[in-house]
């Protein structure tokens, strides 16, 4: 028998295992979610690779996951027929944490001071393979990669800093392809090895895994068996005829046996008819698929036909992922081709950057299975898909804004308002869709944000333009002398107090054919000019202006008489073509 080799874990791994065990003790059952999701990933990888290498599927084994429990001995085995691991992969994957999910969790825990992290938040992180040690004293991974003709066994124990790898030599344990995990449960956790317990956990955690998950269940059926009426009496009689005459009686007994039972729903939710899917199902799907812990604000399930055919479900999350989770940044859109999972790394091709908060699945029938980023970037089909997806995303956001529950949109705006403003800058083609979604404070609404539609409705009959002032705070906007005349006329003025507001508005230029006008710029025309009178005044104060300009020198471009103030004696304004004072502040802040 080839010797087994001993390896030390990378130092980080030992610490990670400690952390997992200490922070998740009250959420132990996540181990099953993690191990099933690894099995599902392994099946996805195999299916994906087999598109270009059909040879990988030469062992005609179904793509599925099987979980068996031995409650007397406290053992769970999880077997998948996925891609498996070579000897080198075993060492690379299960001895280090270069891997995605686990590393993220590790960092998040390190970042957060208290190790007890909110148990809801835990759901956001893949905690990975090592979560097996939450419930196990010993874990054995036996795995066969189609790239290797040998099967290898990884063996590790809780609280150890090393593990072993050896070749599998017992033919009884051979598997044609894939991975079998055997968990030897800790004394207190043997309860997990009950078939019903596992069944419930699978139903709860893994209902959206797209491969069948079978659990080993005890079954029974009743059957009627014949019983002799009373054999003892018949014998006593010694009467042969009586035996023949004897009435046959039957009795119901329960026959017990064990068998695999399909435990999850494998029809992907996006292939179902939207009419048959409940909001709860969408919400669950969203939370399970994207590791979210709150219901989404909105979802949209649709099919497009004709030129390009695809199905999709999109979601707007209720919260923005903060720093910890923004390591998850991409992975918002899961792309499938003909139900085969391709990648969750192509968001950039399917959505513009500013809409990257939208999450969802997209399943196309028109793309090749071996699709790559390069293909996506070139593809006319993808251009059409992108257009439709963006449109649907906007419909969904508009839906939130029209909802009777005003709070929903407030929440949306607080989380993703900046994204829409970025959209004003980056996506000219969708200005018409973005503009109605913007929100601002104004001189007549300092507490509640208003939409541009609300502004336009509130415009005075003689008012031509949409007025705004950009400032660094509501207070300074409110106290700006530029406001005086407009307030007198009862014209509403938008207060652009977010640094991005002004740039967004300048990119829009107009809304419903009304121009945006900065009231702090020179030449503000309120439509009430009295040319005669202005001429007179200009003449009267001409000398005074010259004098002031001389005194101020290069500090100002010019000094002019103006009709725009009512109470303040003078005001500093920006040149018509120059930056506004606010922009100047921004630019300064950026170059410093
Ligand atoms: P993650 O899934 O985030 O990569 P895990 O700790 O869950 O992190 O898994 C680590 C790695 O181990 C996986 O990326 C994969 O390469 C490998 N692995 C784990 N389970 C399996 C399995 N059942 N089949 C094949 N590879 C696996
Ligand atoms: Mg994993």
From TrEMBL:
Q: Where is the signal peptide?
A: none
**Which positions bind ATP?**
34, 38, 80, 85, 100-101, 124-129, 179, 373
Q: One GO molecular-function annotation for this sequence?
A: unfolded protein binding
**Record's keyword terms, sorted:** ATP-binding, Chaperone, Nucleotide-binding, Stress response, Transit peptide
Would you tell me the Gene Ontology cellular component terms?
A: cytoplasm
Tell me the protein family, please: Belongs to the heat shock protein 90 family.
Its protein name is Heat shock protein 90-6, mitochondrial
């Amino acid at each position: 028998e080839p010797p087994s080799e001993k390896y030390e874990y990378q130092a980080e791994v030992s610490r990670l295992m400690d952390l997992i065990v200490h922070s998740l003790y009250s959420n132990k059952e996540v181990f099953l979610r993690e191990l099933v999701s690894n099995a599902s990933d392994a099946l996805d990888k195999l299916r994906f690779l087999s598109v270009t290498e059909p040879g990988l599927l030469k062992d005609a084994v179904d793509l599925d996951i099987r979980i068996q429990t031995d409650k007397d001995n406290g053992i769970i085995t999880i077997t998948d027929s996925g891609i498996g691991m070579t000897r080198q992969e075993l060492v690379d994957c299960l001895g280090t944490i270069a891997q995605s999910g686990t590393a993220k969790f590790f960092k998040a825990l390190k970042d957060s001071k208290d190790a007890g992290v909110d148990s809801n938040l835990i759901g956001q992180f893949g905690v990975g393979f090592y979560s097996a040690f939450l419930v196990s004293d010993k874990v054995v991974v036996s795995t066969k990669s189609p790239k290797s003709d040998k099967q290898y066994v990884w063996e590790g124990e809780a609280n150890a800093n090393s593990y072993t790898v050896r070749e599998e030599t017992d033919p009884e344990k051979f598997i044609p392809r894939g991975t079998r995990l055997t968990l030897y449960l800790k004394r207190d956790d043997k309860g997990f090895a009950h078939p019903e317990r596992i069944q419930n956990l699978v139903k709860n955690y893994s209902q959206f895994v797209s491969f069948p998950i079978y659990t080993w269940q005890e079954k029974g059926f009743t059957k009627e068996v014949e019983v002799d009426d009373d054999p003892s009496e018949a014998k006593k009689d010694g009467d042969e005829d009586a035996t023949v005459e004897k009435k046959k009686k039957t009795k119901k007994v329960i026959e017990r046996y064990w068998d695999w039972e399909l435990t999850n729903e494998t029809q992907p939710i996006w292939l179902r008819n939207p009419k048959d899917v409940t909001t709860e199902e969408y919400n669950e799907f969203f939370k399970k698929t994207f590791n979210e812990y709150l219901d989404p604000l909105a979802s949209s399930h649709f099919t497009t036909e004709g030129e390009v055919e695809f199905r999709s479900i999109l979601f707007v999350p209720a919260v923005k992922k903060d720093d910890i989770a923004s390591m998850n940044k991409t992975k918002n859109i899961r792309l499938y081709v003909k139900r085969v999972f391709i990648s969750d790394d192509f968001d950039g091709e399917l959505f513009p950057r500013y809409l990257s908060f939208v999450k969802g699945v997209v399943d196309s029938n028109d793309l090749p299975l071996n699709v790559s980023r390069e293909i996506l970037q070139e593809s006319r089909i993808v251009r059409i898909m992108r257009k439709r997806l963006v449109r649907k995303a906007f419909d969904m956001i508009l839906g939130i804004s029209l909802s009777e529950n005003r709070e929903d949109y407030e929440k949306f705006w607080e989380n993703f308002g900046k994204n829409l403003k970025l959209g004003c800058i980056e996506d000219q083609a969708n200005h018409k869709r973005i503009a109605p979604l913007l929100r601002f404070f104004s001189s007549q609404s300092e507490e509640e944000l208003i939409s541009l539609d609300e502004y336009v409705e509130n415009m005075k009959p003689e008012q031509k333009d949409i007025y705004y002032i950009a400032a660094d705070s509501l207070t300074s906007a409110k106290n700006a002398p530029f406001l005086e005349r407009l307030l007198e006329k009862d014209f509403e003025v938008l207060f652009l107090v977010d640094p991005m507001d002004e740039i967004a508005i300048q990119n829009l230029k107009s809304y419903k054919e009304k121009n945006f006008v900065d009231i702090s710029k020179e030449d503000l025309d309120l439509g009430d000019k009295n040319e005669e009178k202005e001429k007179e005044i200009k003449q009267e104060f001409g000398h005074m202006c010259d004098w002031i300009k001389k005194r101020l020198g290069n500090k100002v471009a010019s000094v002019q008489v103006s009709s725009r103030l009512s109470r303040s004696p003078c005001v500093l304004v920006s040149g018509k073509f120059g930056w506004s004072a606010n922009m100047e502040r921004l630019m300064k802040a950026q170059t410093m």
